[in-house]
Amino acid sequence: MSLPAWPPKTSDAQLASLLAEASTYALAHGFTLLPPHPASGAPPAPTHAIAAPLSLFPTPFPRAEYVRARSIQRLYNSLYARIALDWAFLDNIFEEVAKVDEFQAELWTRWKAVRDELQRVQPLQLGIFRSDYLLHATGKESAIKQVEFNTIASSFGALSQKAGELHRYLAASGSFFNVAPQLADETAYPDNKSLVNIAAGLADAWKAYGNPNALVLVVTQDGERNIFDQRALQYELQATHGIKSIRHTFAELDVLAKHGGDKQALLVPNPLTPNEAPAEIAVVYYRAAYTPNDYTTGKEWDTRVFLERSSAIKCPSLALQLAGAKKVQQILAAPGQLEEFLLNPARPDTGFGAGAGTLTQADVDALRETFTGLWPLDDSELGKEAQQLAKSHPERFVLKPQREGGGNNIYRGDIPPYLANLDAESRPGEAPKREGYILMELITPPEDVHNWLVRGGEGKPRLADVVSELGVYGVSLFGDGKTVVNKEAGTLLRTKGRESDEGGVAIGISSIDSPLLV
User: Fold this and answer.
1) Which is catalytic among the residues 74, 400, 434, 487?
2) Alpha-carbon 509 to chain mean position
3) pTM of this prediction?
4) Which of 2, 21, 230, 297 could tie 175 with a disulfide, CB 3.0–4.6 Å?
5) 238 among annotated binding-site residues
6) Could you confirm whether 130 is annotated as catalytic?
7) Mind listing the pLDDT tens digit for each residue in 138-195?
8) Active site includes 160?
9) Is residue 391 among the annotated active site residues?
10) What is the rounded CA–CA span in Å between residue 205 and residue 265?
């Protein structure tokens, strides 16, 4: 179906009123970021905040595709849990990737050093995932295609729920001035409890750990601006589940973290009770550790391994972080790979029973339908085909490294010279550097969709030709053969101007939006 002409027409006075209502609501309800830090650095405690980038109207999204994206999330959860448990599969991939990607090599090497020990100390793993999609338009029809699958530090769960609540409030209060019939349809605003559900996933892991006095540790980055999204999860943990949490960076944990007892409990001082013994940690929740910038010295790697070796449940484990690499995504697109993971009778229970359990070929096909074209860039026949495609039709592709965090991809016409530079930098007798990348067919979003976007702290809207990326959260607790949690956990919609290939919210490129189902 075609999406409606958007946004609806408004007068200057109506637009000004809508901007004031939306911005005030955002500030009043914690839909916020810290402003950019001054050159002197961040103050020890926040002194003010700015509204997170937002959209004045929800953006139209096909109802059937939204429902489909949410309905298959538990399948994706189960798939990636099984990948994390398949040591031979990961070793086979990263033995090659490690030759051309130092960061992935470090993750893989550190994991191999501790994984046997972890089977005894803490077999459980927690995944808080997000599967990201763009709509791919073919004529008047659009269907979701997967951009990537995130296994570490999947952010904006709290702000996403608040974005939906913002648009519901604007509709209920009359702030949309009845300018479009779609905005008056209450069923067009999906129920999205991503904040509640992600916090519940952390609580599930905390309960499985089995110590009612233990805490959740949030590992953060220095200078984090997205602090309110993270803090909202901590407040929800405390208010709904009675679970206390603390925050520390790698540098702080290098000094503070200790192991205790035969089971290698992770002990960290609680800054709120400095005179008491260090607190035991039930869950280590990473909102850092996904980029080489988080490991500027050897100490950060040592701290990561120290945390990994403890009895705390990690979110994610090193294995689960490796499972989220782009190379894994590319290999899953090969014939038979999904069947091997989802239908093989030897696979463990990760939410649908052991082996195929309740899964069928139709479930496998449902995942495969979300794939777009994916190729390796090695010297295999498929890799040579990809190199030729990238050189002859670069406008159809994006080049992706094994990285999280955005801003790392190479697009369209920049691909051929970039590949040439990689080949020039490669040394004889070593694996070509291009093998650290995959080639992905670009997804073509629907055209002529617009919205009013407001950058954080600017206080003025701009009308943009937009592209929206839908993320679906999932929670998976697995690994000991009997404790299995597998839940779909809500959605995120990020909307950006079509002129931008990347989509960072904190730097103002994307706005946190909510879908208007049509």
Assistant:
1) 400
2) 17
3) 0.96
4) 21
5) no
6) yes
7) 988 999 999 999 999 999 999 999 999 999 999 999 999 999 999 999 999 999 999 9
8) no
9) no
10) 15
